[in-house]
Every structure is written in C-alpha cells, then in structure tokens.
Amino acid sequence: MNKRTLGSQGLVVSAEGLGCMGMSQSYGPADEQESLATIDRALEMGIDFFDTAEVYGPYANEELVGRALRGKRDKVIIATKFGWKIEDGKMTGLDSKHVRQAVEGSLKRLATDHIDLLYQHRVDPEVPIEVVVGTMSDLVREGKVRYLGLSEAGEQTIRRAHAVHPITALQSEYSLWERNLEPRIIPLLRELGIGLVPFSPLGRGFLAGSVKRAEEYPEGDFRRGDPRFQGENFDANMRAASVVREVATKHNATPAQIALAWLLHKGDDIVPIPGTKRRKYLEENVGAASITLSADDMGRLDDALRPEAIAGPRYNERAMGWVDR
Ligand SMILES: NC(=O)c1ccc[n+]([C@@H]2O[C@H](COP(=O)([O-])OP(=O)(O)OC[C@H]3O[C@@H](n4cnc5c(N)ncnc54)[C@H](OP(=O)(O)O)[C@@H]3O)[C@@H](O)[C@H]2O)c1
User: Fold this and answer.
1) What is the pTM of this model?
2) Which residue's alpha carbon is nearest to atom 38 within ligand 1?
3) Set 56, 59, 119, 147: catalytic member
4) How far is it, in rounded angstroms, from Cα 204 to Cα 188?
5) Distance from first CA to last CA of the chain, Å, rounded?
6) 56 included as an active-site residue
7) What is the C-alpha separation between 273 and 21, in angstroms, rounded?
8) For every residue of the chain, which 3-state class applies, written as one string?
9) CA atoms of 28 and 143, how far apart (whole Å)
10) How far apart are the CA of 141 and the centre of ligand 1, in A?
11) Per residue in 109-167, pLDDT tens?
12) Which pLDDT tens digit goes with each residue over 254-312?
C-alpha cells in the first residue's frame, strides 16, 4: 500500500489505517481471535497505522492492540486518544484534566514506551485548549508521544491548539454522507498544514451496504440509537446511497471500496481509517487504494450524497453536544 504524509512534521503512514474500535465495542460481539488475525493481515498487506483509544472497551481495545502488535512495535504507527471521563466502566462525560494519567495508562495497556499520535478525543470546555496542548507538548518533549492530534475540534480550537504546538492531524467524521468538514474545516487544515484522518469513513457500515434498520440491532449496538438508521431516515439514506452501488458495479468493485476511494481522491492529505474486525472486509478495504475514480464518478457521488439528500443527524443530541464547533 502507498504511503501518505499526515501534517507537516514528518509523520508518514499507510494510505489507509485500520480502525480498531469495533473489535471491542459498538458493532456487535467481539471475536478476539479474528480481531488478532485481522491486525496481522493488515500488517501483511502494508497497513501500518492502527487507531485505538482509552475509552474503547473501555481499556480493552488498547490491550488488544498492544497484544496484537507485540514484537512489531518498530513497524507500526499507533494512534490513541484520551479525553473521556470513565466511571464504573462507562463513559460519563469529558475529562481533559487528567491527560498524564490517561497517557500513562495507555502506554501500559499498549505495552510500549511511546505513542506515535496522541489525540484529544473531544474538546473539554472546562480546560482551555492551551493548557491541554501544553501538557501534550510536554509529553512530546519527554519522548512519550511523537505527534499531536485533535478530534471533532472546531476552527477556533484548532487555531489555538496549533499556536501552542504543531498539530499533525485532525480525526473527525468525514465520509460520502457526512460532509460537515468541507466548507470551513478542510480549508483551515490545508492552510495550517494539518492532515485529516476521517473516522467512520463507511458511515458505520451504511455506505458499504452491510447494515440493518436500527431496531434490528441488539441492545448495545451503536446503530440502534443512530438517527440515520431509524425509520424513514433509513429509507431515504438507502435511496441516496444507491449511487455508491451503481458506481461500484461500473468499477467491478464493492460499495465499501467506492466510499473509501472517494475519500482517497479528495486529497493526499487524507488517511481514512475504516473499521473492521474481519479479514474479509479488511482485504476488501485495502483494495480501495487501487481504484481510480473519474471526475464524472466523483461528481456523481458528491452530488447524490450532498448534505440535503441525507436524512437525520449523525449523532443523537447528547453526542452532538460533545462536538466542538
Ligand atoms: N474520533 C472519534 O470520535 C471516533 C468515532 C468513531 C470511530 N472512530 C475510529 O474510526 C474507526 C472507523 O470508524 P467506525 O468503525 O466507526 O466506522 P466505519 O469504518 O465507517 O464502519 C465500520 C462498520 O462497517 C463494517 N465494514 C467495514 N468494512 C466493510 C466492508 N468492506 N463491507 C461491509 N461492511 C464493512 C464493519 O463491520 P464489522 O464490525 O463486522 O467488521 C463495521 O460494522 C473506528 O474503528 C475508530 O478507530 C473514531
């Protein structure tokens, strides 16, 4: 797989990363053996960029990634995140007051002495971003962290953070059906030389077509509470996404591959991190990097999935409240 550079500080990663969250939560039961095999296969196929977070599990996902990458540390780029308050195994709010403790915990679980890319998972309105990035920057000086990132941060926060210490990447939701970054955030990232790591690049599976209606998912599956998977929204979004299937047929590809190829064509400063816990999907997703979309394909996709064609917000109200804009 080709390499891409994130940001202006020299971080080079595979053009696609692997989102590891779903191996421990959100999208159905965990399968540790298949997850470990998926990480191994990713390495074999040239993926070297692995995404996890303290809160995934919580904690279990970092432990899994740490186990999977034991003995291979020098070949991989590990990205993790801090910033949630975790009480009795549950995420109860934001917490960027305890950055150091969170990072010490992540280092232990990941079985490493350094984190390649450390993100603040959500902006905490109770702690000025200058203070948070100041601490993150101290961790860089101490050799515990190499590069810094933010997630779902708004324009002003990105500018203020970058003035304290260069920010290498923003990880925020960006995909064919979630374009909120296009008008202002992406131009700002390009102005400042910050890379973009789109999360949920397959729309949590929706763009890949591997989904059911919200109520058909068991309790605990994220998509049960996802407004875009509910009722009439589901039907409208399936109609809008039919173009992805059409373009896929034309390229003898799968819809997931087209959704990823679209992101890869949006700029070489973009490194999507599709999530999967199965080798089968991983292999398919790696194939997206070899697809060439024409300007006409890009235009059709851009237009058919424009924001007005998508029904429902990407998060419920509570989760939207944690997004900094
Ligand atoms: N910063 C943040 O706040 C934030 C938020 C969400 C996610 N993330 C990160 O971003 C990563 C990716 O996002 P995501 O996992 O939420 O969503 P995603 O990548 O858009 O979709 C994941 C879902 O799509 C399915 N899938 C993957 N490849 C497929 C294929 N080729 N064909 C059919 N279905 C396929 C997966 O199935 P299986 O589960 O069955 O493999 C899973 O259910 C996460 O793993 C996490 O590391 C970050």
Assistant:
1) 0.98
2) 276
3) 56
4) 26
5) 34
6) yes
7) 10
8) CCEEEECCCCEEEECCCEECHHHCCCCCCCCHHHHHHHHHHHHHCCCCEEECCCCCCCCHHHHHHHHHCCCCHHHCEEEEEECEEEECCEEEEECCCCHHHHHHHHHHHCCCCCEEEEEECCCCCCCCHHHHHHHHHHHHHCCCEEEEEEECCCHHHHHHHHHHCCCCEEEEECECCECCCCCCHHHHHHHHCCEEEEECCCHHHCCCCCCCCHHHCCCCCHHHHCHHHCHHHHHHHHHHCHHHHHHHHHHCCCHHHHHHHHHHHCCCCECCCCECCCHHHHHHHHHHHHCCCCHHHHHHHHHHCCHHHCCCCCCCHHHHCCCCC
9) 37
10) 33
11) 999 999 999 999 999 999 999 999 999 999 999 999 999 999 999 999 999 999 999 99
12) 999 999 999 999 999 999 999 999 999 999 999 999 999 999 999 999 999 999 999 99
Cβ(277)–Cβ(203) below 8 Å = no
Domain boundaries, the chain: 3-320
Ligand 1 atom nearest the C-alpha of 203 is 20
Mean pLDDT of 85-101: 96
Classify domain 3-320 at the CATH class level.
alpha beta
Residue in the block written with tokens 């949630």: 84
Atom of ligand 1 minimally distant from the CA of 28: 39
Contacts of 271 (CB under 8 A, 6+ apart): 4, 6, 13, 14, 15, 16, 17, 49, 169, 195, 196, 197, 198
Closest CA to 6 of 77, 103, 86: 77
pLDDT band at 48 (very low <50, low <70, confident <90, very high): very high
